[in-house]
Design goal:
It is built from 3 helices and 8 strands, in the order αααββββββββ. By secondary structure, it is an alpha+beta fold.
Length: 201
């Protein structure tokens, strides 16, 4: 009869030992302790098919939860790497609604490391940015302006983004306003949307 330690072909604590879960919701040690306790609990009685399935279900849930945070971190890192370089706006909405300015018709964004450099007309601005992946809904991006218009320097603009290959869509709101939930909010006051295409230099 196979013991519960052998349900996955190896010891379950050993299964997690090699995984990099330091940033997981539970962490390796906590997940291993829980699985060890489950193994001991099941081993006290005869292993039946129902118990085997239940144990596997619980263990898989613990492993999946522990891997969730690192997985999101990996995706965020991938997006960050793909953002690097210069992007040129194709469509802009929300800028100069009362008096459209020529300088805002074309916006260049350059991502370099954790920094963002913007150029519009003869003006420039700089910011740091942070990507925030969500379990449900649109991925988020925050900009903290370090150089540029005095009214926004030192403030954070909350936005959402959609990165697909060499196209990037960003929607954000004025400082102090809540983050847009979807890309369907372009008509709301204080909401700005940029659709950009990556330039191959």
């Amino acid at each position: 009869m196979r013991g519960t330690d052998d349900l996955f072909g190896c010891s379950l604590p050993d299964l997690l030992e090699g995984a990099t879960l330091n940033q997981g919701v539970f962490g390796t040690n906590f997940a291993c302790e829980l699985i060890t306790d489950l193994t001991h609990l099941v081993s006290l009685t005869e292993v039946t098919p129902m118990k085997t399935h239940l144990f596997a279900f619980l263990a898989a849930g613990l492993i999946g939860t522990a891997w969730a945070a690192p997985l999101k971190d990996n995706i965020a890192q991938r997006d960050k790497e793909n953002l690097q370089g210069q992007w040129k706006s194709v469509i802009t909405e929300g800028y100069g609604k009362d008096e459209p300015g020529e300088e805002l018709k074309t916006i260049y964004l350059t991502f370099k490391g954790d920094q963002l450099f913007a150029k519009y007309g003869m003006k420039t601005a700089e910011a740091t940015y942070k990507l925030i992946l969500t379990e449900a809904g649109t991925n988020q991006i925050d900009f903290t302006v370090t150089k540029g218009p005095e009214a926004v320097v030192g403030k954070t603009l909350q936005g959402i983004y959609l990165l697909e290959g060499d196209t990037l869509r960003i929607m954000y709101r004025d400082p102090g306003l809540p983050r847009p939930d979807t890309f369907m909010e372009e008509d709301k006051p204080g909401v700005y949307m940029i659709f950009l295409k990556k330039e191959m230099l």
